[in-house]
Amino acid sequence: MNNPLFELLDRLEATRSLTTEEYAVLIAGRSPELAAAAAKKADRVRRAIYGNTVFIRGLIEIGNVCKNDCLYCGIRRSNKNCSRYRLSTDEILACCREGYPLGFRTFVMQGGEGGTIAVDEVCRTVEAIKREFPDCAVTLSLGEYPTEAYRAMRNAGADRYLLRHETADKAHYEMLHPKEMSWENRMRCLTDLKALGFQVGCGFMVGSPYQTTELLAKDLKFVETFRPDMCGIGPFIPHKDTPFADRPAGTVDETIFLLSLLRLVKPDLLLPATTALGSISPNGREQGILAGANVVMPNLSPQKAKENYTLYNNKLTTGAEAAQNLADLKARMAAIGYEIVSARGDIQRINE
Ligand code: 5AD
């Protein structure tokens, strides 16, 4: 046991902190043995807080109109091949009405940024969901807004907000986004959301263009210091109508290793096994759960939305990721020893 990599892993489990350089050594030193050891620790740490439960979130893709032009994303503004849609408040409520009897107690409204839906309409829709489903949590994932808009959303009753930081490195951020977007504003948004009392999710892609081991290490350090309630990570997957069409996708193995490390960095983290992970490998989500993830986000969107909410190619649109196939997903989780539960699934913050 005097292999320095395994010692770093032990120290991470014990102290929940490493230097950025040490995170980089661990990430670069990944081997099947190291990943297996990390997954085993991550599973133990997760079970101590959440047992074998897996929380579900009903994902509603409320629209793909987007004012941003992120170089990796299939619904970027300049993609003329993307057929744009937006769901009305009634259509969103219809998704919730379908999801509630299936067992969903969290609804996630995710959509393109600044254009899909006005702030007032977001607030009215949140209020309508909360009125009809008072025992459910509402999560928003609608991108960057001014502080006051976030405050209005929070006052309307939204409980959580997901905004991936995408990368903790400013220079890398600028390689993935057009000039008019700024890393500072992204960080301002995350800080605001936390101060407003949202449960906040950040996150990043694994294997995005120009990403290095050192940059991933910075992402881990960011999670350690920012202390989000959730962290969504998934492999980068190229989309044919973007400038990154010919870039290689991220890998399942690196993604699940990072899931394990994130669980050790913050044991109470809500950590989804994402659709992107399920999209690059048939059992990607099971592997994610086994490695420390404890959330899955089945898709409650109407079919027309699913077909056009194409952030990347070959995104799952039928099958176990569909909320209507929850029975199948439950069986798949049961087969590996985990139980999907119908609960809001708020973070169970541990004292530190
Ligand atoms: N591959 C994987 N993930 C992507 N996202 C956007 N485009 C891609 C892609 N090509 C992720 C981003 C964004 C989230 C909604 O989806 O991290 O924050």
Quick structural gist:
The protein is an alpha/beta fold.
Notes on the protein architecture:
- This protein has 352 residues and is of the alpha/beta class.
- It has helices spanning 4-15, 20-28, 32-50, 89-102, 119-132, 147-155, 170-176, 183-195, 213-226, 252-265, 275-280, 284-290, 303-308, 326-335; strands spanning 53-56, 58-63, 106-111, 137-141, 160-162, 199-206, 230-235, 295-296, 339-341.
- The chain has a 6-stranded parallel sheet.
- It is globular, with a radius of gyration of 19 Å.
- The two termini are 28 Å apart.
- The relative contact order is 0.17.
- The model has no long low-confidence stretch (mean pLDDT 95).
- The chain binds 5'-deoxyadenosine.
- Residues 72-73, 164, 166, 205, 234, 236-237, 239, 276, 311-312 line the site of 5'-deoxyadenosine (5AD).
Q: What topology does this entry show?
A:
Elements (H helix, E strand, L loop, with lengths): L3 H12 L4 H9 L3 H19 L2 E4 L1 E6 L25 H14 L3 E6 L7 H14 L4 E5 L5 H9 L4 E3 L7 H7 L6 H13 L3 E8 L6 H14 L3 E6 L16 H14 L9 H6 L3 H7 L4 E2 L6 H6 L17 H10 L3 E3 L11
Parallel strand pairs: 1-8, 1-9, 2-3, 3-4, 4-5, 5-6, 6-7
Helix pairs in contact: 1-3, 2-9, 3-10, 4-5, 5-6
The structure holds 5'-deoxyadenosine.
